[in-house]
Amino acid sequence: MKSLRPLLVVLLILSVLALPRESLAAGDKETVVLLHGLGRGASAMWPLASRIEQAGFDVVRIEYDSLGAPPEVILASVARQIDACCRDLPNRVHFVGHSLGGLVIRGYLAEHSPLQLGRVVLIASPNAGTPLVDKYRDTWLMDLAGPTAKTLGTGPASFPNALPPPNYQVGVIAGVRPASFVADDGIPGADDGLVPLESAKLAGMADFIVVQTNHSLLRYSRQAARQTIAFLRGGAFEHRPQAATENVADLQATRPRKSETGSN
Predict the structure, then answer these.
(1) Of 1, 120, 137, 190, which is the most buried if we count CB atoms within 10 A?
(2) pLDDT digits (tens, 9 = 90+) for 17-40
(3) Contact present, 117 and 89 (Cβ < 8 Å)
(4) For 42, how many CA atoms within 13 A lie in the half-sphere containing its CB?
């Protein structure tokens, strides 16, 4: 193992030197605020955070109590953290959220207007709710998922449907499970296992793209990361055929750590 250390050091140095020159100047970096989903923590977003950092952004991962707190408590906690880290930054501040994290971003931006607001990417967020919550709301499963999970249904008073439409530039990434994994789970149409494709869409979105993987694995997907970075940089996704092997390699390339257990 010791004989490999010099090689690893060289590879690390080369990877840093390969970054765009502007990404090496900390004062020139824009910031991405990254929010996890239901039942997860900030550490669950490490693969996506790492890829965004490699693209030349600073990343701030926000932690919140997704299982024990209702939406209004989550939003207050997130607002305090964002104000502490990013309110006075001189460069643009972007937002990226997976699943519930995207809804929390929308809730935050409905009440706050950052002076240096950049772009927003929502990954697998149930912007119109999910019928799974309607189906299981009164069961012990939803009791375990917590008070916020119970607000993610498709009714007009649900947390996602009560949020106002965006007045900022937002791109939406949705997942679709491979055909071999599709089951009769009560979700209409194509879906990622938790969120229907149509529910991920958002009125007023600037762009929309589908990644062929399931809900949880979108956090680890290299394709989703690349599309996120493309939108943050230029306000549009890369609409071109993707390599068939890309999604297959995602899980092996970014296996979750033992501490990363939860809902999505």
Answers:
(1) 120
(2) 343 434 444 568 999 999 999 999
(3) no
(4) 10
Q: Which two tokens stand for residue 244?
A: 């068939």
| Number of independent structural domains in the chain | 1
What is the residue type of 141? Answer: L
Q: What is the pLDDT of residues 50-89, one digit of tens each?
A: 999 999 999 999 999 999 999 999 999 999 999 999 988 9
| pTM for the model | 0.81
147 burial level (CB within 10 Å; 0-12, 13-18, 19+): middle
User: Which amino acid type is present at position 36?
Assistant: H
CATH at residue 46 = 3.40.50.1820
Residue 147 lies in a domain: yes
Rounded CA separation 14/229 (Å)? 21
Local structure of residue 18 (DSSP, 8 states): T
Decide: helix, strand or coil at residue 63.
coil
